[in-house]
């Protein structure tokens, strides 16, 4: 083990409004979630001192590009578009998008039913891109956080939300039974940890730590804690 003073700091950005991946624990006021515990374990394994910072999701890539942060773990989907401007670790979580509507809605049953409907999304996300394929852009309301988009749906100001499946499922499970998911999971996505382009040393350390955690059972332990099942 290295001395604390000798540890390199890793400044990690996330949008901590994305439960169960990164959010503020209402009881302790501290950041928690699957991503938070995973990056803590990665830093411990790789000998980094973690400096975790929350910021809006649509500002994370720019923060990496300007080296304000060293890495992003934020339920961020590995996409070709993003791979042009940042580098991603090996995938660490399989995800997908889903359509959410009010529980009393019997009109929208799938993604195809969204044409002409009002949709709330989180800015800069894969969910926003999918919503833009489903309806006209002027029917879409963009929010900084996923909570705000969900609130808009609960309030009945929009007809639907397009968002990551695990986040939507967790939200409903947290007592929001006035919301339901409809149709199939829309896309096969994988989350990765992003670093600025060309930061191969950081990326290699993150990948090596992730591999160790998958091999030694720590990844499975964290996964089980948050998702109640084996990865
Ligand atoms: N997985 C989605 C994306 O990468 C949403 C991520 C998020 O909102 N934190 O665009």
From TrEMBL:
It is found in: Cell envelope. GO terms for molecular function: ligand-gated monoatomic ion channel activity. Keywords: Signal. Residues 9-229 form the Ionotropic glutamate receptor C-terminal domain. Residues 9-230 form the Solute-binding protein family 3/N-terminal domain. One of its GO terms (cellular component) is cell envelope. Transmembrane segments: none annotated. This is Basic amino acid ABC transporter substrate-binding protein. It comes from Desulforamulus ferrireducens. The lineage of its organism: Bacteria, Bacillati, Bacillota, Clostridia, Eubacteriales.
């Amino acid at each position: 083990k290295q001395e604390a003073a000798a540890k390199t700091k890793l400044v990690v950005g996330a949008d901590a409004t994305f439960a169960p991946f990164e959010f503020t624990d209402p009881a302790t006021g501290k950041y928690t979630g699957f991503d938070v515990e995973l990056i803590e374990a990665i830093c411990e394994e790789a000998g980094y001192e973690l400096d975790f910072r929350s910021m809006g999701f649509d500002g994370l890539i720019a923060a990496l590009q300007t080296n304000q942060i060293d890495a992003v773990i934020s339920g961020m989907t590995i996409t070709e578009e993003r791979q042009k401007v940042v580098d991603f670790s090996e995938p660490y979580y399989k995800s997908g998008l889903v359509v959410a509507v009010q529980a009393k809605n019997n009109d929208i049953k799938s993604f195809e039913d969204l044409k002409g409907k009002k949709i709330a999304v989180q800015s800069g996300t894969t969910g926003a891109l999918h919503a833009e394929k489903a309806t006209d852009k002027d029917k879409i309301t963009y929010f900084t956080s996923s909570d705000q988009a969900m609130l808009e749906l609960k309030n009945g100001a929009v007809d639907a939300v397009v968002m990551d499946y695990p986040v939507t499922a967790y939200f409903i499970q947290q007592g929001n039974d006035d919301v339901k998911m409809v149709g199939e999971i829309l896309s096969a996505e994988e989350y990765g940890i992003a670093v600025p382009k060309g930061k191969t040393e950081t990326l290699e350390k993150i990948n090596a730590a992730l591999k160790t955690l998958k091999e030694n059972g720590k990844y499975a332990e964290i996964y089980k804690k948050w998702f109640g099942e084996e990865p």
